[in-house]
Structures are given as C-alpha cells and as structure tokens.
C-alpha cells in the first residue's frame, strides 16, 4: 500500500526529469505499481482509511511522485457533473487541445508540495488524451474543465513540470485570456 511516506516532495530530482516510456505490454511490476497508485487515490478519498493511515486526499498521482521515472498516471475523482473518472494509464499523451483556457479559482495543489502556492494555473479547457489502460487497451479520452485540469497536472509530472511553473510570477492572479473558470457553477 502506498502512503504519504512513499511520495517524494518538491526538490527531489525525479520530479524535474522527463519520465521514460513504459514498454508495452507492461511488466507485472509496472502493472502492480499502477494499481497501487490508483488504490492510494481511492484510499485517500475514504475518510476512515485516510485518517487511519494519515493520507492526504488526492485526485491524481504520477509515477515520478513515488520516485519512479516512468510514464504512468492514476486519476480517481468525480467531476462537478457527477461523472466518475477512475483510470490507471500507461504512456498518456495529449494529442490535441483547445485554444480556450480554464483554471480553478482556488488554485491547484499537489501531493508532492507541502505548502500553499497561491495563483492561477492556466490550463487548456479541452484536451484529448491517448494512453493504454490497466487492461492493456488503447484509450482515447476527451476531457473538459476539471477533468482536463487533473489530467494536464499529472501529465506535466511526466515531463518534469510542476503546477506552479505555470503561475505568472509577476501577477499570480492574472486570469488567462480566453479562459473560463472550471469551478462548479
């Protein structure tokens, strides 16, 4: 079981590396690791389990965050329209995106960052992601709003990018041009 002790924090060099592609079909080890990453997210959202094991709640986790330079992400959340997203993905790639931007008015957080980083993190409002899922199937996901933000945050980790790299240093609360807020309306 993955716990907060397994999650590397900002400053760890793996968080700034471009992660390696996972050979497909994935090894049993990679498969098990990705399943455990997804399990962490589910456990972290269960109040009882989270309290028992001192887990910070998360909606996404990338392999570099547990010290592995591999292109694997897990996401588990229900969006503002009550749609569930629960995926373990190998080699996810954004294949297209909108011009329109989006952001969370509350900003973003990260399991690898133990501090508040105030500011607007501009993201694409719509993206299309291609990846291989835990069953070994090729998937193509069209994502919008909050879901799009979560996936971009995790895929950034695979490229050595932290969410706060996107915040305007001079004016952290600048609303991006052509942007809609992703918060529930």
Describe the structure.
This protein is α+β, with helices and mostly antiparallel strands and 185 residues long. The protein has one domain (4-181): Peptide deformylase (Peptide Deformylase, Alpha-Beta Complex). It has helices at residues 28-44, 47-53, 146-158; strands at residues 60-62, 72-78, 84-97, 101-103, 123-124, 126-133, 138-144, 179-181. The longest helix is centred in the first third of the chain and has 17 residues, at 28-44.
Write down the Rg: 16 Å
Helix vs. strand class: alpha+beta
Q: Into which percent range does the helicity of residues fall?
A: 10-25%
The termini sit apart by 36 Å
Q: What value does the average pLDDT take?
A: 96
The CATH topology comes to: Peptide Deformylase
How many DSSP helices? 3
Order of helices and strands: HHEEEEEEEHE
- β-strand percent reads 25-35%
Q: How many separate domains?
A: 1
Describe the global form: globular
Main β-sheet description: 5 strands, antiparallel
How many strands appear in the DSSP assignment?
A: 8
CATH top level label = Alpha Beta
Spatial order of strands in the largest sheet: 1-2-3-6-7
